[in-house]
Fold this protein.
Amino acid sequence: MKSGRAWPQGLPAGMRLGTSSWSEKSWVGSFYPEGTQAADFLTYYATRFPAVEADVTYYRVPSVAMVRGWARKTPTEFKLCAKFPRSIVHCGEGATPDATRLMVEEHTARDTDSFLRAMSELEGRCGPLLLQFPYLNREAFAGLEPFLERLDAFLGRLPSDFRYAVEVRNKAWLVPALTEVLARHRAALVLVDLLYMPHPADVAERLPVVTTDFVYARLIGDRKKIDKLSGKRFDKLVFDQRPRLERWAELLRDVAADVPDSFVFANNHYAGHGPATVAELAALVRREEPGPPPGPATQSDLPF
């Protein structure tokens, strides 16, 4: 298919902004045109944004057929990033991770191989693959050192023909020892804006946050607060994140100057409507005053 003519313009070279997932049904009417069917969401999404982060892969290893379908629905220059499955980076039942299995080869090798085999179907469309770790308390790992030993070994087993990004949710682990391991394996430190984590701009003041030749950033927010404010309908902004986004814009301009590629994804739970957050951030990166959130195209603009 042809590339989208409505991708955000005027951003630093190599910067791709998008959302975390494309499957939100409440976007119909606010982002997707009225009447758009779920099967057509990704096709339309790819006309508006140059990259997306697939969330579905966290919950199950995608099939080869599923990933081939994503490739058919997107232009060749589109990038689809995806989370490693929960069975690799969490391994527990319910909310509690199982550190006895997490990244352990005998427990995770099969799903790792299956995941990478499926993602290879994207070929040039494949963006960085995300290792999203949960908060890991001392019952999981006694400290950062045993976690880094496990991570170092796991990254060392991964094939070099993919790019990898690593997200930790322990703020005390944002130290040089972590970035050194990531740099050794050419993996990116994920810059994450999450309720209990420091703003990445603060992290960047004390730590080298660029660990490889690309940047990976995620605007996640406060799930409980946004669920309450939105009623779990994500068709509009319900919380003003302008001060945090202004800091993001400055940081992204700085780090984008150091790398050829940067990937930035906004979650619905950041402010209530992922596409609108992307539009606001894009304007701030361009040093413009944000306009109204992006609405759906007319029927004549649809690619299907």
Q: What stands out?
A: The chain has twelve helices and eight strands. Residues 298-304 have pLDDT under 50 and may be disordered. Residues 15-301 form a domain with the TIM Barrel fold (CATH 3.20.20.410).
